[in-house]
Amino acid sequence: MAHDFSAKTLYQKIYASHVVGKLNPSTDLLYVDRHLIHEVTSPQAFSGLKLANRAVRRPDLTFATMDHNVSTQRRSMDAAGETSRKQLEALAANCDENQIPLLDLTHPDQGIVHVIGPEQGLTQPGMIIVCGDSHTSTHGAFGALAFGIGTSEVEHVLATQTLPQQQAKTLKVEINGELSAHVTPKDLIMAVIGKLGTAGGNGFVAEFAGSAITAMSMEGRMTLCNMSIEMGAKAGLIAPDETTFAYLKGKAHAPGAAHWDAAVKYWQSLYSDPAAVFDHTVVVDAASIAPQITWGTNPEQVMAVDQSVPAPDSFTDATKRDAAERALAYMGLQPGQKLTDCQVDVVFIGSCTNSRIEDLRAAASVVQGKKVANGVRALVVPGSGMVKRQAEAEGLAAIFKDAGFEWREPGCSMCLGMNDDRVAAGERCASTSNRNFEGRQGRGARTHLVSPAMAAAAAIAGKFVNIAAVHTQGEQP
Amino acid sequence: MSKIFAKGLVCPLDKNNVDTDQIIPKQFLTSVSRDGFAEAMFFDWRYLADGSPNPDFVVNKPEYKGASILLTRANFGCGSSREHAPWAILQYGFKVIIAESFADIFFNNSVNNGMLLIQLSKTNIDLLFNRCTQGPQQWQIDLASQEIMFGNNAALGFSIDADIKQRLLSGLDFIGSSEQLNPQIADYEQSRKASQPWLG
Ligand code: SF4
Question: Are residues B144 and B188 in the same domain?
Answer without folding.
Answer: no
